[in-house]
């Protein structure tokens, strides 16, 4: 089977986009793992499956598959890449509305490679993240391998734990991230962010992603970090987030009913075919 694809990236967080709007390929979990393999396949952090939506409000529907074959609920960098992909196919389209797991979120291209996307409303209620605890708190504590870890929790369509650190350069991203992911407090797994606040308008961030490991950039992780910072009264409504792969801008009023927005680059790398 010969499958066409497009390779794209957002700040180095890279994706293989497979467009199933005209032909469905019925790919398996093993196939996704092979596609993501950087030695045996195309190589990527995640695979984005584009399809037709049953709802006329949406331009298209898309799903996110992690490198280990598991499925994610949302991906900010992937969202920007999908918006850019659809606009490259139809340059006259001003706004893209995507069906993401039944939620309808909009995005549009700006000047240069930048794309602005709506990421939905941050959710702090533990049961909806989901996170296992008796009640909400700004900070939660976990004892893992005799080490106490303090973190905040939020969902940006997918679960995030955010840990405040003095310096992301010295953060034990692999060690703490994998330990918290494996501790069982988050039934659906968790993305673990390490947040260094430089000032009210600028932060640095590293993210250990569920099903992937640390990536150069995590869009939902950037939104989660700013949402937590805003919730704690530490950040302004507009914040620049410096990730290893580059910078995104996050806007959130902290009104519980308002969506959070992200602006950052999205670029096509190449188009190709793979024989499976």
Q: What does the model show?
A:
With 276 residues, the chain is α+β, with helices and mostly antiparallel strands. It folds into 2 domains: 2-118 and 266-275, Diaminopimelate Epimerase, Chain A, domain 1 (Roll), CATH 3.10.310; 126-258, Diaminopimelate Epimerase, Chain A, domain 1, CATH 3.10.310.10. Helix content is 16%, strand content 41%. The protein is built from 4 helices and 18 strands. It has an 18-stranded mixed beta sheet that branches. The longest helix has 14 residues, at 76-89. The chain is globular. 43% of the residues are buried. The mean pLDDT is 94.
Quickly describe the structure.
The protein has four helices and 18 strands. It has 276 residues and is an alpha+beta fold.
Topology of helices and strands:
Blueprint: E1 2-10, E2 13-19, H1 29-36, E3 46-51, E4 60-66, E5 71-72, H2 76-89, E6 96-100, E7 103-109, E8 114-118, E9 140-144, E10 147-155, E11 159-164, H3 173-181, E12 191-199, E13 202-209, E14 213-214, H4 219-231, E15 238-243, E16 246-251, E17 261-265, E18 267-275
Parallel strand pairs: 2-3, 4-6, 11-12, 13-15
Antiparallel strand pairs: 1-2, 1-18, 3-4, 4-5, 6-7, 7-8, 8-17, 9-10, 10-11, 12-13, 13-14, 15-16, 16-17
């Amino acid at each position: 089977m010969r499958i066409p694809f497009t390779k794209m990236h957002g700040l180095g967080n890279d994706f293989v986009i497979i467009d199933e709007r005209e032909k469905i390929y019925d790919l398996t979990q093993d196939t996704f793992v092979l596609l993501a393999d950087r030695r045996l396949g195309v190589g990527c952090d995640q695979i984005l499956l584009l399809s037709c939506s049953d709802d006329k409000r949406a331009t298209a529907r898309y799903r996110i598959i992690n490198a280990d074959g598991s499925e994610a609920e949302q991906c900010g960098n992937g969202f920007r890449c999908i918006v850019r992909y659809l606009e490259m196919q139809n340059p006259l389209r001003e706004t893209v509305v995507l069906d993401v797991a039944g939620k309808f979120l909009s995005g549009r291209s700006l000047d240069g490679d930048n794309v602005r996307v709506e990421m939905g409303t941050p959710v702090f209620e533990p049961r909806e993240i989901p996170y296992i605890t008796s009640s909400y708190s700004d900070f939660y504590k976990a004892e893992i391998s005799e080490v106490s870890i303090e973190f905040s929790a939020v969902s940006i369509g997918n679960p995030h734990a955010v840990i405040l650190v003095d310096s992301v350069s010295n953060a034990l991203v692999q060690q703490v991230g994998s330990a918290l992911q494996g501790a069982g407090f988050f039934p659906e797994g968790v993305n673990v962010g390490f947040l260094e606040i430089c000032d009210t308008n600028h932060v640095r961030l590293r993210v250990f992603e569920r099903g992937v490991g640390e990536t150069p950039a995590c869009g939902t992780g950037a939104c989660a970090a700013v949402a937590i910072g805003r919730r704690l009264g530490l950040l302004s409504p507009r914040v620049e987030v410096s990730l290893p792969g580059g910078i995104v801008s996050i806007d959130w009023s902290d009104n519980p009913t308002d969506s959070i927005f992200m602006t950052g680059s999205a670029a096509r790398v190449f188009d190709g075919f793979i024989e499976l």
